[in-house]
Amino acid sequence: MTPHRVAVIGGGLAGLAAAATLHRLGIEACVFERDAEVGGVVQSEQRDGWLIDSGPCMAAEPDAAVRAMLDTAGLAECTLRAGPGANHRYIVHDGVPVPLPQTTAEFTVSPLLSLAGRLRLLKERFIPAQRDATDESVDSFARRRFGDEVADRMFDPLVASTCAGDPRQVLARYAFPQLVGHEQHGGSGLQGNLRDRMEARRQAKGKPTGAWSCLQGMHELPLRLASRVATIRTSAPVDAASARDGKVHVGVGGRTSEAFDAAIFAVPAPALGRIAFDLPEADRLMQVATMPQASIAAVSLGFRRDHIVHPLDAARLLVPSVERRSILSVVFPSSVFAGRAPDDHVLVTAFVGGARRPDLVDLPEADLIALVQLELGSLLGVQGPAVMQRVTVWRDALPQAVAGHGGRLAAADVVEATAGVVAFTGAWRDGLSVAEVLLGGVRAAERLAVRQGWPSLPTSG
Ligand SMILES: Cc1cc2nc3c(=O)[nH]c(=O)nc-3n(C[C@H](O)[C@H](O)[C@H](O)COP(=O)(O)OP(=O)(O)OC[C@H]3O[C@@H](n4cnc5c(N)ncnc54)[C@H](O)[C@@H]3O)c2cc1C
């Protein structure tokens, strides 16, 4: 019997996870990727002993369903587990990197919060729940529950380092769903968080936890996934999709279209607005396409180890807005993974731009490097020149879950349910992190298979 054929539009992590899952279900996938290479924002470059990830450089351990899909794609062979530094973070406080406390005991002695700030934090458990907090921003949620200092010093830089967003715009229920969930169930965010961590530790017993990447950089992940997919068409921008006679017809570059049994759209939200859809309820996709996106520049610099005073014994440095710096956050890939920098050297990647300073991504490359080097000089004690420099500007790459987000997600749900032969996935829909995006791709493939009455159990390896 001829296998069912599904078009997957977009060869980023979401599309490739969906395609690899279809393969496990015995369904043939054909991925259409606009660019010359798969991976989307996942890009790695090797040169002169440096291994530079200009997009994501590490991922959290994913859900079991995703891990099974990754194992099938041979990821275990190239998975690189993070060293102990991956659990640590610094936050800039009055110009100085201060370790982010991990335990209550560390909190009580940390200079991050004043005595008044700590007492306010402890009052959190007595703050009554705000039952209808549907469109509450992260900033408002954090101030209401945890106090101003925690909002300014912790939530603000966390939002900057995950989605480069403005905490006064980004909605709490998408950025911190667990915390909001604890409040909705009448509980304390702090206590609920503690319980979550204990439960996660219990469930993770004997299983790998913590951050991971791939031996040759994050880009090995999309390459491995792509190796499980029957057909990958690169340089193939899809510009039309219509549902007729029980098939989905997919058009590329204005040329004749090809028919598939169904299609999964795994493109960024704005890209949906550039595809001519002929599907029931497709007008609603224009609402999705207007989802705001943030742009950031990733400035990777290599230094001689003895030219930096700071031990760099962490995964990341977070920078609150109140510190009035240009840098949003800094990652230290060579502190977390082997093979990222030549011997006696370190690699740091600083992110600038986002909602905080959108103008910065338009600066000439040399100015961005100079700006980052100047700020790192005072933050980390950099005493020598960068011996390696690499700048990547990611325009409109980070979807922002701001007011109206729920309506946009609901619009995509309606199109899926009405058309029956399409599914939507990607960071804009399923969450930004690598782990969430991969899970979203897996779920989109499974959803489509169930809707079509196709096999729901893995049939092939
Ligand atoms: C700079 C940066 C750093 C990050 N760091 C981390 C990190 O350290 N850890 C973490 O967990 N997450 C990180 N993230 C988030 C995570 O990497 C992304 O959310 C995720 O990779 C997005 O995957 P995606 O498939 O949804 O989208 P994309 O990667 O954007 O893929 C979409 C694909 O669709 C293609 N496409 C668009 N239009 C069309 C069309 N018409 N036809 C065909 N193809 C089309 C695009 O070319 C692209 O390849 C980072 C993100 C960025 C931008």
Write a compact overview of the structure shown.
The protein has 461 residues and is of the alpha/beta class. Helix content is 35%, strand content 22%. The two termini are 19 Å apart.
CATH topology type of the largest domain: FAD/NAD(P)-binding domain
Tally of helical segments: 17
CATH class category label of the largest domain: Alpha Beta
Number of domains: 3
Q: How far is the first residue's CA from the last residue's CA? A: 19 Å
Choose one word for the global shape.
globular
List how many beta strands DSSP finds.
20
Percent of residues in beta strands: 15-25%
Q: For the residues shown, what is the average pLDDT?
A: 93
- What class would the helix/strand composition place it in? alpha/beta
Bound compounds, please?
flavin-adenine dinucleotide
Overall helicity: 25-40%
Placed side by side, the strands forming the largest sheet appear as: 7-6-16-17-18-15-19
Task: State the low-pLDDT regions, or none.
Answer: none
Could you explain the architecture of this structure?
The protein has 461 residues and is of the alpha/beta class. Helices cover 35% and strands 22% of the residues. It is built from 17 helices and 20 strands. Bound molecules: flavin-adenine dinucleotide.
